[in-house]
Amino acid sequence: MTIIPTTALVVPGRPEQISTRIAFFIAGFGIATWAPLVPYAKARTNINDGKLGLLLLCIGIGSIIAMPAASVLTSRYGCRRVLTIGTIMICLALPMLATVSSIPLLMTALLLFGAGLGTVDLTSNLQAVLVERTSGKTMMSGFHGLFSLGGIVGAAGVAGLLGLGLLPWQATLVVITIIATALLKAIPHLLPYGSKISGPAFSMPHGVVLFIGCLCFIVFMVEGAILDWSAVFLSAERSLDGAYAGLGYAAFALTMTAGRLTGDAIVRRLGASRVIVVGCVLATGGILLATFFPAWKTALPGYALVGAGCSNIVPVLYTAVSKQTVMPEHIAVPAITTLGYAGILAGPTIIGFIAHGSSLSIAFVLIALLLAGVAISGKILKM
């Protein structure tokens, strides 16, 4: 079956590149605002680490359910409409995340939040593949750099607002205003079409796509661990005031942004495989630094190293997927994105169970060991 967009095709140019960057900013900004809110949600619901880990499953479940649907809808209705719907879902979920104390309501809010994030992330990456191909230039690291920039602004901004005395729900109103303004700026030049579907809309990843997807799974799991547990670790294990606990993710996002904004030059200099190996070594060292040194002031540079190490791994993998011929892009891109979000789903939950049975420190050490496995795989993957 072939679905041909009814809207006349727009040849992507600089305006479309800018709108793609804004879309990535919205995705990063939206997800990062959750990090400083986690300790507040944990306190309101009065739950332990194990139950919090189960609740955090809802973000990943919502994302994984939404992504295949978003892929099909994007092909039928275009990136513009689908990305707008996903952004609205994020905005609807945020006030609930900041206020509800009922576990069922929090689960509902996290599912909606995850579905919105998954929709925006998937659609942004599909648009990025289309725009990058038309430009004839390597642009993926720059696009993902705006995701990371959104992470800095979101995590540090919300932490700053909470530090100034704003209540969580008041901080989310500021967040929604920023997201809505960014969306209005991006809408005119978001692509009114998506990738054409030729053949089945869904297919199990195989070959090199499956291999790349597994690497994405682990790297996204690390990012999810920092997002959902760094604030809890800093407040519970390092006695940092809850209002400032989001600075751990902000440090991670800061170095990730710097790495991605300079990523194209780094990849050209080192090569894609070496970027994966060196990046994993840096990230592993950062996790160990944050985990084994007792001061929170030492933990922040550790999270910064994790961000620097992970910064260009995912963009390199997305570029590799756009070049492979084993599976068509409208299946391959959602496949590795879904596997990545499965990592976000599994990672925080596994950490929650391990922390409940032992400690957060042991959980982070196990994450570091998985990164070492990615480093070995980086030598195998030819790009």
From TrEMBL:
SUPFAM superfamilies reported for this sequence: MFS general substrate transporter
Keyword Transmembrane helix set for record: yes
Chain ranges passing through the membrane: 22-40, 52-70, 82-103, 109-131, 143-163, 169-187, 208-231, 243-263, 275-296, 302-321, 333-354, 360-381
Keyword Transmembrane helix included in the entry's annotation: yes
CDD domains: MFS_MosC_like
Subcellular location: Membrane
Highest taxon of source: Bacteria
InterPro entries membership: MFS (IPR011701), MFS_dom (IPR020846), MFS_trans_sf (IPR036259), MFS_Transporter (IPR051788)
Keywords assigned by UniProt, alphabetized: Membrane, Transmembrane, Transmembrane helix
Pfam families: MFS_1
Location (main, coarse): membrane
Segments forming domain Major facilitator superfamily (MFS) profile: 16-383
Lipid bilayer topology: Multi-pass membrane protein
Protein name, as recorded: Inner membrane protein YbjJ
Lineage: Bacteria, Pseudomonadati, Pseudomonadota, Gammaproteobacteria, Pseudomonadales
